[in-house]
Amino acid sequence: MSGNAPVLAGKNLTRRFSRRASFGRTETFTAVDDVSLELHSGETLALVGESGSGKSTTARMLAQLITPSDGTVELGGRQYAGRRLGEFRRQVQVVFQDPFSSLNPRHRVEQIISAPMRYLDLPKPAGGWTARVKELMERVGLNPDHSQRFPSQFSGGQAQRIGIARAIAVEPSVVICDEAVSALDVSVQARVLELLRELQQQDHYSYLFITHDLAVVREIAHRIAVMSQGKIVETGDRQQIFTNPQQEYTRTLLAAVPQIKYQRAAAAGQAAPETGRT
Question: Are 32 and 14 in contact (CB under 8 A)?
């Protein structure tokens, strides 16, 4: 990656979709309109907005899961396409919203976590895939002896930890969290957010955190980009956005934030344990 370039950048990203209208007509609508974002090394950038604002579509373009209609995606100042996409995917991983939908229910945890390493043809670890998977499970707070279980045998919080372990298995530089805690109870959210913070401190991951929940943003973001109707309407650091928002839309979002402070490590340890599903 080059010099001082952002670790990940979207430049003038636009995404148009076609949909069927009345009388058999097809019409085009723009889900994301000329969006530019920069994510820097070791930071958490939150992209926030209401449902339908275009934030998840933006995230998927930045992850190169869908192709922009216009604009470019750069990793370390370089574009990746074709055969070089494997190198891009090694560096940019995604944690999805619903852990159970994103984990293959027919695969055991060892298969799920090791899949990116095998898919990207990474060298087999000295201790083999099993040892590496157990190491990753321990890092994210899961019992490594449960590596032969299926996703349905875990709670929602535990399943999301499996998704996080899968994402960091290939040692990426960027992790895109697409509503990664929105499906979890508040106490479990706090513990997963604390895990993400710890991993960032240890390995300097850069996070793009997609969410509609500004209470979560307050806990984890360094910078915030506010999105509405497919456009970025305001950006700033966390303090600026929360104390001196410039746009009425941002003020409206802030007015809806519940007055809840997420508990950090010590307090979160008092929360109900993430037991297996029944």
Answer: yes
